[in-house]
Amino acid sequence: MDTWSRRKFLTASGVAGGVALAGGATAWGVSELLATGSSAGGDSEASTLVLVTLYGGNDGLNTLVPAADPHYRDLRGALAYDEGEVLPLGEGLGLNPGMKGLKKLWDDKRLAVVRGVSYPKPDHSHFRSMAIWQTASPSGPVPSGWLGRWLDHEGGGDPLRAVSVGATLPPLMAGETTAGAAVRLGGKKLPDAWQRACTELARVDKDAHPLLRRAGASLADLAKVSTAFDGSRMTDREDPNEPRDEDDGNDGASAGGQGELGAQLDVVAKAIEAGVSTRAYSVSLGGFDTHANEKATQSRLLGQLDKDLTAFLERVRGTQAGRKVVVAVYSEFGRRPKANANQGTDHGTAGPVFVLGDPVQGGFYGDQPSLTDLTDDDLRVTTDFRDVYATLLHGVLDTDPGKVLDGHDTTLAFL
């Protein structure tokens, strides 16, 4: 099992500026983010993308369950769900029993399920696979994330066009010329003396050496950190689910994700309602590395995901901007079809991607991987992950996907 760390992940991703990213390239407090909203509030005509990362490798076969397939029950044994337990979607497939909110979205034609999603020659390493997903570069490391490249092309130098809610900025939001902003939950404001010192030191003459100007800009960003708004469900303590550096030991099943998904989505909802200019948000949930005792763990996590996502979508539908929100949910890989000896599953390949929201054309997209035609005991990939990204770039972020995805512009019909 891989040991996760921010340093190792950033190195594997190939994204430039790893040291800066580990601390958040541009740090903001939640109240400061909300203060940038327009007077019109959440009435923007622009669409908004909310990207949800499930860290650890979510088991796709027990999320989108082929319960009618006898081969599934043969492979999974006690981990298998019966047909009567799952929430039926058709074609012999059903949602995990804990995902009743997503089932309602499916019935309302507001949930698209993209099946068999991964990249060519899938990798079983957490950090290598996540680096590929976040950079959209399966052929090798590149110096930017896919939303970072969108920022380079379309962001106009504004880091608030892409916001990660959490203590660190993920590589997916690091461009070569522009990086997004990290908004930490429960962050403490710098003492006044430090605020004044940072402000003074940030005043660097425009003719100064480039490195001095860069240091000044970093200090100016640091001075922007503010106390989180009242009512956040996070406290001022350190987030226990925040990934540690490799010197601090194994992150275990958390595998780099955060807890408190509802609190993260609460920030996103408030920003949308306030008319903040952000077009893309990143939130995350960890804990999906289910090598043992999977059924109870995954059921709990999927129940939390379902509850928090459906509450978020119902809330933002109250504004014009919120009705243009599209949520995409992915994980770095699925799990192996066959259960292991510990009532869990090991690192696999393809899995489903969920796309939710009012603009979504609900239904199935891509083929369901066969359980009898495996590659080295893994599911075959039926949908290239870049097809999903290209669709989101074109349909939500109004961008030519070829400019961001190195010429890849194949789209799907869910938007």
From TrEMBL:
Location of region: Disordered: 230-259
Compositional bias annotation for Basic and acidic residues: 233-243
Domain of life assignment: Bacteria
UniProt-listed PROSITE patterns: TAT
Pfam families assigned to the protein according to its UniProt record, in alphabetical order: DUF1501
Protein name: DUF1501 domain-containing protein
Species whose genome carries this gene: Streptomyces drozdowiczii
